[in-house]
Amino acid sequence: MDNQSKFNFKHNVEKGLADSELRSNLKFATNTLRAKRKALFADPEETHALRETGRNIKARVLSRLPKLLGKLEKNCIRNGIRVHWAETTDEANQLVLEIMDKHGAAKMVKGKSMVSEEMHLNSFLEKKGKTPLETDLGEFIIQLNNEPPSHIIVPAVHKNRRQIARIFADKIPGATYTEDVDTLLKTARKILREHYRTAHIGLSGVNFAVAETGTLCLVENEGNGRMCTTVPPVHVALMGLEKVVEKLEDVPPLYRLLCGSATGQRITTYFNMITGPRKKGERDGPTEVHLIILDNGRSKILADGQLQETLRCIRCGTCLNHCPVYTRIGGHAYQSTYPGPIGTILMPQLEGLDKKGALVTASSLCNACEEVCPVMIPIPELIRRLRNEHWDMDKKGVLKGRGSKKSILEALVWKTWKFTCTIPWINRIQLKLMGLSGGFLPEIGPLKAWTSVRTKPVFSKKSLKDLAKKEGIRHG
Amino acid sequence: MKNHSETSKTVYYFGTCLADMVYPQAGMCGIKLLQREGIRVIYPQSQTCCGQPAYNSGFPSEAKEVALTQVRIFSGSSAPVIVPSGSCAGMMKYHYPALFRDDPEYFEVKKFSDRIYELTQYLNSVLHARYEDKGPPIRLTWHSSCHAMREMECTEDSKALIRQLENVEMVEVENEHECCGFGGTFSVKQPEISAAMVHDKAENLRATGTEKFLTGDCGCMMNINGHLEKQRSPMKGQHIAEFILERING
Ligand code: SF4
Q1: With an 8 Å Cβ cutoff, are A324 and B179 in contact?
Q2: What is the pLDDT of residue B125?
Q3: pTM to 2 decimals?
Q4: Which residues contact B238 (CB under 8 A, 6 or more apart)?
Q5: What CA–CA distance (Å, rounded) separates A324 from A11?
Q6: Segment 183-202 of chain B within 8 Å of chain A by CB
Q7: What is the residue-wise DSSP string for A61-100?
Q8: B130-249 has which fold?
Q9: What are A205-240's pLDDT values in tens digits?
Q10: How deeply is B37 buried, as exposed, middle or buried, from its count of CB atoms within 10 A (0-12, 13-18, 19+)?
Q11: ipTM exceeding cut-off 0.90 for this assembly
Q12: How many angstroms does the Cα of residue A220 sit away from the middle of ligand 1?
């Protein structure tokens, strides 16, 4: 599904739910990821303390973000990294293109970067006649199949081994169908090695950018990140401006939280710390390193004391794995760079409630995400905030597209409900009427939705108030 | 399970709107379990709903008016307010103060919120209720509501009460941590997703091989029972208060 075509959430949901293969792939993968996380974070008290540390580090960073970004820029420049600022994704795309053009580069190898997804960088570059190549195995697979990622950590989580084998056989010239993982890996590796060798530009994301040292940290498991950032002559790193941390000591707890939450690992296979281009006399490494720092609405989010909490996110993806909605409809249904609970709160803030407001209905507010979020983002509370802004009844909203849901009928329903809940005699009449109606309500509107898979609730002839009165329970 | 110490000779009871409309027996049984411990229970007749439906649906002003109405109905005392639902208790204990964060009524509301206990939490951790099982042997399972688990943290209290019943064998259900798909208005705003969730929940409950599940929340019960009934399954859920009272009365 193309992230840029018209967004019809209801349709996407139905499609996701109807795809039984998708459902079982997701169930299997997310069960595994959850079990791994649980095994690693086995001690609840220790985990809680670690999560508090994570939250505090990120909250401290956000409280002095402009200053830290200034410091990061200064220290990166000192290290020889060229720093660029992009207010919008268009600007960021242009910056990447300029760097490529300056070096006469046609081909780019890409490590995993969610910011590049946010920019729709691949389709932008393709339109300009460039060739961006994904090197993260999951991203490699879905690029072959011309799909966007469906998970922020495991991009091809929606595919099983058989489907991946099919994609390899269909899309790679000369490949024969095999489900043998080693053979598949060998095929991918062979293709990618050649690209690393011949690409002019290597692109990567950034997990943490350390302000005090000007260091870019990159967390990965496949070594493709290391290849992209060391083999091609030019390295371009993309980061959202909230990825800065203050000092080196901030990194270990966040790193531990990230690995544990994302994949249940104590530590990843690769942890790259990039502190500038190749120096005189050094034999390897890129000769140029660029850092593009993207805003794309983040500074607006920062300006709101409550919404700001969204920016603590370290993109671990564990809220997706724990979400009963995500695990059933799949990532593509959100038709957004960031799916799942984090997407539910972030996308309407980035793109506006008028565009992505439907996402805020995609939660039963079960709190499963909040319970596991390594930086303790109160996701359900933020969903409620966005729902308030979606209707914007009290006109206190600040987001783009606030009030886009406004409806006189819905407002009337809640006004009526309020009267039945604040005026005792109306409440008594309502209970009486419901009791009299029993199960004989017409099946329209909400009741129709309810009864598609459930029987009608039967209202009791006697309310609890009636029973309490009869039993002589004191009422004051 | 949280630590609670204070006991009170008198408690107030907030029965919840769902108990009022659909499950009055469950609500009444909660009152009786409290009385059985020698506690005087006061049930204000003008109480209505905790306000959660509007609060979760984007109508905070309406939610606040309803919330403040309840706060005022229960004012003038510092006695505990007992709620036979983890979800409504969580709303009143944790979300009321959040709703009034920036308002002059904050302290009035906070004082009320501090009085809130979920029913089984109060019975187990404060009153240390002791039960003698007089019923025949039965196997059953337990469904925990999300807010009982993650807000009130009273699931262990509920289970501790059930474990006192000698002839009751409680089987753990797979994916106990997962939401049943009720979510108040979620079930009608996203009916297809909610349906998929309640379907999986019912499957898991049935896979325990039992024909009964207990729960502390009428919302989940209405949702899951409605689905089981539609599927003509013999399995059925019951509110924990009603079940315990039945068992100890023989
Ligand atoms: S919101 Fe929390 S759990 Fe979800 S991706 Fe971000 S850090 Fe991870």
Answers
A1: yes
A2: 97
A3: 0.96
A4: B26, B212, B213, B214, B215, B221
A5: 19
A6: 183-184, 186-199
A7: HHHTHHHHHHHHHHHHHHTTEEEEEESSHHHHHHHHHHHH
A8: Rossmann fold (3.40.50)
A9: 999 999 999 999 999 999 999 999 999 999 999 999
A10: middle
A11: yes
A12: 17
Kindly tell me if the per-residue pLDDT of A447 is higher than 90.
no
Closest to A467 (Cβ–Cβ): which among B24, B42, B189? Answer: B24
**Confidence at A1, pLDDT banded by 50, 70, 90:** very low
Answer yes or no: are the C-beta atoms of A205 and A218 closer than 8 Å. Answer: yes
Give the number of other CB atoms < 10 A from CB of residue A127.
Answer: 9
Model confidence at A4: pLDDT above 70: no
Tokens of B192: 């297809």
When pLDDT is cut at 50, 70 and 90, the band that residue A440 belongs to is: low
* Domain A9-132+196-299 falls under CATH 2.10.50.10: no
CA atoms within 13 Å, Cβ hemisphere of B17:
23
Q: Is A373 in the pocket of ligand 1 (CB under 6 A)?
A: yes
CA of A310 to the centre of ligand 1 (A): 9
Note the pLDDT of residue B34.
98
- Is the CB of A69 within 6 Å of ligand 1? no
Beta carbon of A316 within 6 Å of any ligand 1 atom:
yes
B181, A464: Cβ pair inside 8 Å? no
Q: Which two tokens stand for residue A433?
A: 């009427």
B95: nearest CA partner in chain A: A381
Cβ separation A367–B183 shorter than 8 A: no
Chain A, chain B: beta-carbon pairs less than 8 Å apart: 188
pLDDT in tens, A310-326: 999 999 999 999 999 99
Residue contact B55–A362, C-beta within 8 A: no
pLDDT above 70: percentage of residues in chain B: 97
User: Which backbone phi and psi does B10 adopt, to 5 degrees?
Assistant: -120, 140
Give chain A's radius of gyration (CA, Å): 26
Residues of chain B with CATH 3.40.50: 130-249
Going through A113-206 in order, the beta strands assigned E by DSSP cover 131-134, 201-204
At A452-476, the pLDDT tens digits run 899 988 889 999 999 999 999 998 7
Domain ranges of chain A: 9-132+196-299, 408-470
Please, are residues A155 and A142 in contact by the beta-carbon 8 Å criterion? yes
Distances (CA, A) of B17 to A161, A427, B48, B123, B145: 49, 10, 6, 21, 17
Mean pLDDT of all residues belonging to chain A = 95
Can you list the residues of chain B whose pLDDT is less than 50?
none
In angstroms, the first-to-last Cα distance of chain B is 28
Q: From the centroid of its chain, how far is CA A317?
A: 6
Residue A2 banded pLDDT, cuts 50, 70, 90: low
User: Considering chain B, what is the average pLDDT of its residues?
Assistant: 95
